[in-house]
Amino acid sequence: MSDRLLAGLNDQQLAAVTLPAQPALILAGAGSGKTRVLTTRIAWLIQTHQASPQGILAVTFTNKAAKEMVARISSMLPINTRGMWIGTFHGLCNRLLRAHHRDAGLPQTFQILDTADQLSAIKRLLKANGIDDEKYPPRNLQVFISSAKESGLRSGAVEVDDPYNRKFVEFYAMYDAQCQREGVVDFSELLLRCYELLLRNEPIRTHYQERFRHVLVDEFQDTNTLQYKWLKLLAGSHNAIFAVGDDDQSIYAFRGANVGNMADFEREFRVSNVIRLEQNYRSHGNILDAANALIRHNARRLGKNLWTSEGTGEPVRVFEAGSDGLEAAWLVDEVKNLVADGLARREIAVLYRANAQSRVIEHALFNAGIAYRVYGGLRFFERAEIKHALAYLRLIENPADDTAFLRVVNFPPRGIGARTVEQLQDTAKTQDQGLYAAVGGVAGKAGVNLAAFVKLIDSLRFETANLPLAEIVEAVIDRSGLLAHYKTEKEGQERVENLEELVNAAAAFVAEEGYAQDASGTQADGAVALPSPLAAFLSHASLEAGENQAAEGQDALQLMTVHAAKGLEFHAVFITGLEEGLFPHENSIQELDGLEEERRLMYVAITRARRRLYLSFAQSRMLHGQTRYGIRSRFIGELPEAGLKWLTPRLRESAGLRFGGWHDAGVQPSVAVATPMRSHQEKDGYRIGQTVRHARFGEGVIIRLEGSGTDARAKINFGAQGVKELLLSIAKLEVA
DNA sequence: TCGGTTCAGAGTATT
DNA sequence: TCTGAACCGA
């Protein structure tokens, strides 16, 4: 039986799957069968009776990854995966906190604030305390609070070195107090509160430590400081952490991920079993050679080299365009050819560094009538009308939730203006209670309207108490007036449909019964009540915002950022906008280890391709309303020349990028195009777009010319050396 | 409460 | 250049 489970694994995969119960670190390269190893490991542990399904905890970063894991395990073993602890860090912490809310100091009905809710809570707190939001921007406070929590620090533990900093810390304390008062937790609070619960409550900690003999972690390179601390606490000194990750694919430092956790884990747990999965089952040789060669330029690595038993395949194609528009035009042509050759559009991905780059490409695709799908954008539970409906539901569940209260107190409009709300907030503050509770303290007509609102919520709560979830939602969108409001709105049709979809989502949620299992059989003392379906649904809405991509269905080209492409694979991949300043991004160059992270990002991009890889860059690009002249990304130069096939001629190897090269050579895209953009502005014989050489900074491109006479200055993009502004009378520039 | 105007900012993102 | 948020007048 176990033979079948293990059949087809290569030696390294087999070794990883069948490791003894010890701390283990699996360095899983791109396309090396990482998820297969993780899920087969779990199935093997269960099948060989080394662990029961309840004795395993597996944690991921996204709901998608968790679902995939559950699905694969289900297909391998005839067991019920429902009771298993497989989920995201946030989902599992939520589960623990629901089960032990009292010990964690939370009300049973605590609500989860998403990022937008958190920001509005911060703004409200700033206002209530008369703090200058220009001196203390809400966004900065939000980032400060989140990163403190993600480092495991409460306000009292944050080091203060100056008065400005002190104010942030003070605000952090006030914010936490407000959340506590209102019975809400933000995303990082879920983790921190759960960590503190396990840290301080010995019986609970021991209970879970004895239960989860095997703790498996996916994408370990993406863990932040707090997540690693949480894992260490949960594993205790006896349990086996099985960490799977790839330091070369660490691309989330900007949101707190600490790759250093990998090395720390190896050291702190004295990991004797570091297994490298280097055989790649995805890409052909030339693509892997490119990826390997590129990533070798990074100094800080644990070290890995991908290989394949497949052939070298096609060369990596490189295209130099005159402008971003021409790059898009070429791309459209190339896609047409691929599709004409029989390749499905969904098997082609167009990747870019920043979302803004999609516009030019979308424009070209749209005009060419090629179906495409852009990843990113508003998700279902983030839509305004859905958030409004959820706010009503939250108030039913927890009247102390002031964020929810303020969102809908006057939506749809019911004569409760800003003035009234301010009055109410003052009353609430002097009485030291929530808005809902303070309503009685407001007199006059305003008070009557407020009382009517509270009465609406109260009666909804009372009347829906024993109804099935879908009917509660239905009653709320109806009785709140939301549905009627959007029905009268000119462009409200889609919103009405979304609200109706919310009723369906509630019904589907109950049908899947995910919520009931979430809390069953998981309590330490077995005495904790199940959360109501409504509470579970609200958690679900916060923790899983829905699909982050356009509707599926038709066969469409896939457009997305490189970040969004992580974990995916396609037959053909276009990596566009490979220009200095864009990819690698100029902001990253300033950051500590920023360039290495950009290179890892490029590594991720390259390894998405199975059979065909295109790299492209443009000489000029419209950015922030200005035409910018860039030079080819250094990353292209870091790839093995032998595996590249230039679709556009390069005039002089040493000169790097030259302008109008393809024009002279007559290799034009088959679309009507203008000559590459070129400024007419000239100064002392220099012009924008011109390639020049500086003794110290090397080769660069003039991107701006200003002043005149002795004050004539040129802004020059020296690529790796950055953008410099030089006085033409002083700098000795050599025309390349 | 709406619709228009103005202004700053423009990087990647999950929960 | 374009977008979203903030702001102001009717």
SSE arrangement:
Blueprint: H1 2-6, H2 11-17, E1 24-28, H3 34-47, E2 56-60, H4 63-76, E3 85-88, H5 89-99, E4 111-113, H6 115-128, H7 138-150, H8 163-182, E5 184-186, H9 187-200, H10 202-211, E6 214-217, H11 225-235, E7 240-245, H12 260-268, E8 273-277, H13 285-295, E9 316-323, H14 324-340, E10 348-352, H15 358-368, E11 372-374, H16 384-397, H17 402-408, H18 418-431, H19 435-438, H20 444-464, H21 469-479, H22 482-488, H23 493-512, H24 514-519, H25 533-543, E12 557-561, H26 562-565, E13 570-575, H27 586-590, H28 594-606, E14 609-623, E15 626-629, H29 634-637, E16 644-646, H30 661-665, E17 682-683, E18 686-687, E19 691-694, E20 698-706, E21 713-717, E22 723-727, E23 733-735
Parallel strand pairs: 1-7, 1-8, 2-3, 2-6, 4-5, 6-7, 9-14, 9-16, 10-12, 10-13, 11-12, 13-14
Antiparallel strand pairs: 14-15, 17-18, 19-20, 19-23, 20-21, 21-22
Helix pairs in contact: 2-3, 3-4, 5-9, 6-7, 6-8, 7-9, 9-11, 13-28, 14-15, 16-17, 16-20, 16-25, 21-23
The structure holds a DNA duplex (15 and 10 nucleotides).
